[in-house]
Structure formats: structure tokens, C-alpha cells
Amino acid sequence: MMTIDNEQKHIRDMQGCYNWIVVSGSHLCCLFVYGWYQAIGPLFVAIQHYFEETSARTSWILALFVSLEFGFGIGYGLILPAHIGIVSLYINKHFALANSLVMSGSAIGIFLFPPLMQYLIDSYGWRGAVIIFSGINTHMGISAALYRIPARLGRSHDVKQENKSEVQHSNICRDQCEIWDFSLFRQNPLLSTFTLANLFGIGVGYQSLPAHLLASADTKGLGSQNQLAFLISFLGLSSLVGRWVPPLIGCISKNRITSNTLFGLTLLLMGIISMLSSLATTYATYAVFACFVGFLSGMCFVVENNALKEIAGPENLTASLGFAVLATSVGVIIGPPTAGKCNMIL
Predict the structure, then answer these.
(1) Which residues contact 94 (CB under 8 A, 6 or more apart)?
(2) pLDDT tens-digit profile, the chain (346 residues)
(3) Which of 107, 231, 324, 326 is at 20 to 30 A from 317, Cα to Cα?
(4) How far is it, in rounded angstroms, from Cα 25 to Cα 115?
(5) Residue 299 near residue 259 (C-beta atoms within 8 A)
(6) What's the whole-model pTM score?
(7) Which domains can be identified in the chain, with CATH numbers?
(8) Which residue(s) pair with 154 in the sheet?
(9) How many Cα atoms sit within 13 Å of 255 on the Cβ side?
(10) Is residue 195 helix, strand or coil?
């Protein structure tokens, strides 16, 4: 028979293996959610051509389409806070590594999905492409099937049950019910600044990019639709590289550079690069711009979750992510139409 210590070690080892299975499930969620949103670039151009409308008016369609409820549709809005929040329940010591693995899924999706979207549009039209992508997104159910309540090991105080380990379950349902805990802003004043950064830096700024980058290049006649779709793939490939830079910086600096500092710095650099985007006049310069933004955004999205964990603590990570996603969704409603209007003026 197994001793108590051996049994607990066996359960701990099994739990440790399953932790990384959960990470792989969250990785798939990132791949589908963020990959789909970046694939909106080719869809934006297709809808604009189909209705023969300006980018400003077409932007309203996409803004309402992707921002319904909490973020990228009701389903996406529920997925986004949970897919990182559940990783924090399973992974503590190596959370930065796990977070990079999870968020690298979005970079892979950004690299793969825009050319796929353009191919589907060419083959089945934009309506058919949306239907097929909806079917592809149902595969996120596989990720959901991997999630379960994490077990916590403990010892029973009952002498009669001393040969059995006591398993305590985290109440995930309670955590989800407390997702709108506004007292977090009072307890963590920096969270307000962080939420505003998500509203303007990510929602209004970055999330307007995939649609209008392709629309701008298309207006200038810089290439075919298939060539333009690869601009987002360049962004995704460089984003994949950028997502592994924060753990490397943390290792080199021995964690003296905080995630909050990196988050603010990457947002600042993304803003500067975006202001210089008007200098891009050829396909090559558009590709370089996409690579720079992709690299910085890759860093930004990884350190965002680490920064939230530093600000609010791991027990409040899911709730904090809920507010961040809500702020981003409001920015997504505002950003694309505003960018389209500015594109007409300039």
C-alpha cells in the first residue's frame, strides 16, 4: 500500500502534468479568439468593396460586430478573462512562462488566419467565409473540455481517515460571480490607470490596426488581396517573437524590471510607431511597420497579464481581466470608426 507521503507525491505529480494540459487548452483559445479578430482585416476590405462604402462607414459594421457585449461577441467576452484566470489557478511558480505559452497561441492565430480568411473569401464570398470561420471557432469547445476544478492537497484531521489525503476544491463559480468587484479599484488605485491604458492604448489604438492597415494599403494599390492579407501574417510572426522577449528580459534583469514598466514602455513605443506609419508608402514599408507593431504588441499582451497579477494579485486576476476586456471592448467600438473618419480627412 502507498504511504500518505507517496500518495500525495503521486497525486501532486499527476496534477503537475495536468497543469500544462490546461495551459495548452488556453493556448488554443488564444489562437482562435485573437486569430479571428486579426482575420477581420481581409473581411473589412471585402465588405467595403461589396457595399462600395467608405472605410468610416464600414468601420461601424465591424465595430459593432466584434464588440457586442464584453468584447469579441458574447462568447469571446466570456472566454477572454477565463482563459488566463484559470491558468493562474493551476500555475503559480512558473506563471510567466505559462502566460507566454498561452499568449503565443494568439500570435500563431494572427499568422495563420488572415491568409485563410482571404482564401475563404475568394472561394465562398465574405458571407461564406464568416460561416466557415464560425464552424472553426466551435473547436474551442475542446479547450473547455480540458478545464476542471484544480485540486488542492491537504491532510485529513480524522484519525480514521489518516490514510486518505483531503482534496479541497477551489470554488471557480464563486470567482466568476465576483468578476465585477469594483472594490478592486479602491484597493488598487493603479488598476484604474491600467484599465484606461486598455481603453485607449489597446482598444482605440491597436485594435483598429488590422482592418485599416489593409484598407490603407488597398487604397494605395500596393498589391493583390492575397498579398495584403500577408501583412497581418507578418504582424503575427513578429508578435510570436515578441511574446518570448519579456521572460528573457526578466531572466537577464533578474526581475528588476517590472511587468508594469514593460507594459507602459511597449504601449508608448507602439504609439510612436503608429504616428510614424504615415511615412509608409510601399508594400515593403507597410510590412516593416506591421513587423514593428507585431513585435511590440506581442510583448505588450504578455506583460499585460503579468502586470495585472502584480497589481491585483493572483486571486483577483480573473476579475481584473474582466474590467480590462470591458475597457478594450469600449475602445474597439470607438477606435475603428474614428480611424476610418481620420483616414478620410487625411
Answers:
(1) none
(2) 445 444 444 444 445 678 888 888 888 888 888 787 777 778 888 888 888 877 767 777 666 665 544 444 566 666 776 777 788 777 777 777 887 788 888 888 888 888 898 899 999 998 899 889 888 888 888 777 877 766 554 444 443 444 443 443 444 445 445 556 777 888 888 888 888 888 888 878 787 777 678 878 888 888 888 888 888 889 888 988 888 888 788 778 777 888 888 888 998 998 898 888 888 889 999 999 999 998 998 888 888 888 888 888 777 777 787 788 788 878 777 777 776 666 666 5
(3) 107
(4) 24
(5) no
(6) 0.69
(7) 4-345 (1.20.1250)
(8) 166
(9) 4
(10) helix
Rounded to a whole number of angstroms, the CA Rg of the chain reads 22
Single-letter code of the amino acid located at 218 = D
Copy the grid coordinates of residue 221.
Answer: 494599390
Largest Cα–Cα separation, the chain: 79
Q: CA-CA distances (angstroms) from residue 239 to 113, 298, 331?
A: 14, 4, 21
Cell digits of residue 219: 487604397
Q: DSSP code of 167?
A: E
Amino acid residing at 202: I
Residue 202: all three cell numbers together? 489597446
Q: What DSSP letter does each residue of 44-89 carry, written as one string?
A: HHHHHHHHT--HHHHHHHHHHHHHSTTTTHHHHHHHHHHHHHHHHH
The label of the residue with cell 511587468 reads 259
